[in-house]
Amino acid sequence: MQRVYSSFVLTVLGMFLFLWPCYGQEPEQESAALSLEIYTDAFQESFFEGLKQKGIGNFDKAVKSFIECKELQPGMTVVDHELARVYLEQGALVKARESALEAVAGEPGNAWYIQTLVRIQGRQGLPVALLKDRLPWSDNDFKEKLSLALYREGLFRESMEILKEVQRSAFQARLQRQLEDSITLAATDDEPEVKVEETPQNAAVNSLKELMQSADYIQLQTEAEEALEIYPAIPFFYYAYGLALQRNGNNKEAIEVLEEGLDYLIDDAKLELQFYRELALAYEAVGNPVKANMYLSKTKKGS
Q1: Burial class of residue 99 in the structure, from the number of CB atoms within 10 Å of its CB (0-12 exposed, 13-18 middle, 19+ buried)
Q2: Is residue 194 part of a domain?
């Protein structure tokens, strides 16, 4: 093993003593330096350079430094996590998700890594459950941390769904009460439900929404395409079809469908943001970061 300067050990020890997290603190308060053990001088230099560049907003340089770290020390979850956070800042959501998944796969019990993954999925408006095949879904400790992370992000109903699968405990009971209170409070702000006359068009809309909620994107693609053939001027059907295409990996076709659907959209701000979000994901997937960032910026501005 290469010799490591004792000054580095003292530096990390000082950070550890200063930043020791208390129970209930936000995950963001942990410094990445806490996860470092003893590595080569080159790794240390690249890692701290990445942290410095991230801190001053030079995200491209930060990515370069963290990738150098991965080359020097493959399989370091702390590096994957920092990459995920930088990609999230850049709006590179697909890369952010992949890096976060690598971090969580390496340390399934790390609450900070889980929180970052939840944040990335939330930015895309997607449930974490879509990734269950790539996560330790049968691990009770993981699900406890996941439900808490979702709660912290304000995703109360999604958190409640995960919590239903958690073993009963004092933690589970406490979080359930907090979620019930939060859901009740949020419901008071909702508009009263308006009864809509059931028509073939409304029935098609409801069916597609159910498929979205169940993440059955194969069937969603089939039914949305059929709905578009019958109702070629309804923007929601373009959105549903584009969403299904994107989730099924047909990103180029998804872009065409979604951009065409925008031409039919009038005075529906919520649906407009959903279009922008899917277009950002699709353009990111085909390797067009300029367009991806353009649509992502529209979701942030709410325009």
Answers
A1: buried
A2: no
What CATH number should be reported for the domain holding residue 295?
1.25.40.10
- What domain range is 111 assigned to? 6-137
Question: Does one domain contain both 83 and 45?
Answer: yes
| pTM exceeds 0.70 for this model | no
The length of the chain in residues reads 303
Whole-angstrom distance, CA of residue 118 vs CA of residue 106: 16
Tens-of-pLDDT digits for all 303 residues of the chain? 333 333 333 333 333 333 333 334 445 444 444 444 445 688 889 999 999 998 898 999 999 999 999 999 888 999 999 999 999 999 898 999 999 999 999 999 999 999 999 999 988 888 898 899 999 999 999 999 999 999 888 888 899 999 999 999 998 998 988 888 777 776 655 544 444 456 888 888 889 988 888 778 899 999 999 999 988 888 899 999 999 998 888 999 999 999 999 888 887 888 888 899 889 888 888 888 888 888 888 877 654
177 inside domain: yes
Q: CB-based burial of residue 58 (10 Å sphere; 0-12 exposed, 13-18 middle, 19+ buried)?
A: middle
User: DSSP 3-state assignment of 165?
Assistant: coil
HSE, side-chain direction, 13 A CA sphere, residue 194: 3
- The total number of structural domains that make up the chain: 3
Q: Tell whether 56 and 168 lie within a shared domain.
A: no
Q: Is residue 124 part of a domain?
A: yes
The verdict on 126 and 161 lying in the same domain is no
